[in-house]
Amino acid sequence: MSRSKREALDALVAEATVDCYSDSECITGFYTVLEDNLAVPFQTVVLGVDVTVTGVDLTDDEQIAAMCTRGRAKQRIAILDLPLPTSPPEGAEWIAAYRRWLNGT
């Protein structure tokens, strides 16, 4: 990863976690910026199946999940496991920032 990309992601991490005192608060901060900035709905492919991502959710065990639908079927997929389309939606950089914060990379 280039230095400028790391710096850009670090700036997003700092923005999402400002005033956070615990990991739980940081996860809520990332959930909030994803909810506010990730352009939904958008189409992607999960396990070879076209799905529509309609939003994000914060699960009871503090995981950020993408809300995926296909017809009447609905399923939550961990946001970090969600394959993004070739042209990622606006706000996808927040997913990369969350990954960097969570994994330190």
Please state the CA-atom Rg, rounded to the nearest Å.
14 Å
Instruction: Give the ordered list of helices and strands.
Output: HHEEEEH
Widest sheet, order of strands: 1-2-3-4
Given the C-alpha coordinates, what overall shape results?
globular
The helicity comes to 25-40%
pLDDT < 50 stretches: none
Q: In angstroms, what separates the terminal alpha carbons?
A: 9 Å
Secondary-structure-based class equals alpha+beta
* pLDDT averaged residue by residue: 95
Largest sheet: 4 strands, antiparallel
Give the number of helices: 3
Quaternary structure type: single chain
**How much of the sequence is in beta strands?**
25-35%
Please provide the count of β strands: 4
List keywords for this structure.
105 residues, alpha+beta, 4-stranded antiparallel sheet, 4 strands
Explain this structure to me?
This protein is α+β, with helices and mostly antiparallel strands. Helices cover 38% and strands 27% of the residues. It is built from three helices and four strands. The chain has a four-stranded antiparallel beta sheet. α1 (3-16) packs across α3. The radius of gyration is 14 Å and the shape is globular. The relative contact order is 0.20.
Map the helices and strands.
Layout lengths: L2 H14 L6 H15 L4 E5 L2 E10 L5 E7 L2 E6 L14 H11 L2
Antiparallel strand pairs: 1-2, 2-3, 3-4
Helix pairs in contact: 1-3
